[in-house]
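Module 6 notes. Inverse folding takes a fixed backbone as the condition and produces residue identities as the prediction. Think of it as a translation problem where the source language is geometry and the target language is the twenty amino acids. Below is one complete input and output pair. Work through it position by position during the lab.
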């Protein structure tokens, strides 16, 4: 009997796969057996090389997800390159910081277009393909700010709350069609995105003191949750937002 977490023969699209959480998830999926389409602005050469070293097929798909055209061609491009599309991980994301009273339209649009608009239209493009082929798994990368307000990150909070709602809506619409739509909400994870926070001694101490696990998460901490939600072990899991946060939200 094969493991319920076995992803052999599946094709996974992972956005923002060149670094951080996206790279860790891509490599965890590859280790579980999936072939990988590594999507992003920066070519994910290292990720593709490591996935191939695991014996998987892996391809770079170049796309700037802040614009709609590459988002809409991405599903077809993956099918053309790897022969299918079974798993979509919407991971690419950016953050802009400013007080709400000073927040600019440019910072609003940049974040919402990349973090939310692209997520919906990638789900739509991949979902059409999955529905036509009998099913699939979609995993959206949310945040603690899917549940909390945060401060000085209005467009980021709106985008990540939006991902929570969208995940539930798509789960409702597509559960009967064999497509599972779920999300992962990472806590404080040590990546390039959070390097400035880690470098600030005072902020860093206040963050670590508040995390019940007593440490920052590592990008590899997200791998197991992604493999689970991508696998047949999660066939009856729908519209769930799985926190991987060292207990932050439990506090
Ligand atoms: P990083 O900044 O390390 O990586 C972000 C990734 O997104 C990069 O691969 C980047 O590619 C890609 N990306 C950004 N903009 C675009 C775009 N327009 N088109 C294509 N790709 C793009 O971030 P993390 O790994 O930390 O974060 C990954 C996800 O996890 C994000 O959605 C983030 O919001 C979320 N998250 C992270 C947390 C953390 O503590 N780190 C906490 C909660 C959520 P490129 O290098 O080419 O720009």
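Target side of the pair, the amino acids:
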């Amino acid at each position: 009997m094969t493991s319920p977490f076995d992803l052999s023969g599946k094709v996974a699209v992972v956005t923002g796969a060149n670094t951080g959480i996206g790279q860790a998830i891509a490599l965890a999926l590859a280790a579980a057996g999936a072939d990988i389409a590594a999507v992003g602005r920066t070519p994910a050469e290292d990720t593709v090389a490591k996935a191939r070293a695991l014996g998987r097929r892996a391809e770079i798909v170049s796309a700037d997800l802040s614009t709609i055209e590459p988002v809409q061609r991405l599903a077809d491009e993956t099918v053309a390159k790897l022969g299918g599309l079974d798993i979509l991980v919407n991971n690419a994301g950016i953050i802009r910081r400013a007080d709400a009273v000073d927040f600019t339209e440019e910072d609003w649009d940049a974040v919402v277009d990349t973090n939310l608009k692209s997520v919906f239209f990638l789900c739509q493009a991949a979902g059409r393909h999955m529905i036509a082929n009998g099913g699939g798994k979609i995993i959206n990368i949310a945040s603690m700010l899917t549940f909390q307000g945060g401060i000085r990150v209005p467009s980021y909070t709106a985008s990540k709350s939006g991902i929570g709602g969208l995940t539930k809506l798509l789960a409702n619409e597509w559960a009967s069609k064999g497509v599972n739509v779920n999300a992962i909400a990472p806590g404080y994870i040590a990546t390039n995105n959070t390097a400035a926070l880690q470098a600030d001694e005072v902020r860093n101490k206040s963050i670590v003191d508040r995390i019940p696990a007593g440490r920052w998460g590592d990008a590899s901490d997200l791998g197991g949750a992604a493999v689970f939600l991508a696998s047949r072990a999660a066939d009856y899991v729908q519209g769930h937002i799985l926190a991987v946060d060292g207990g932050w939200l439990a506090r």
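Reference fact for the lab report: The chain has one domain: 11-243.
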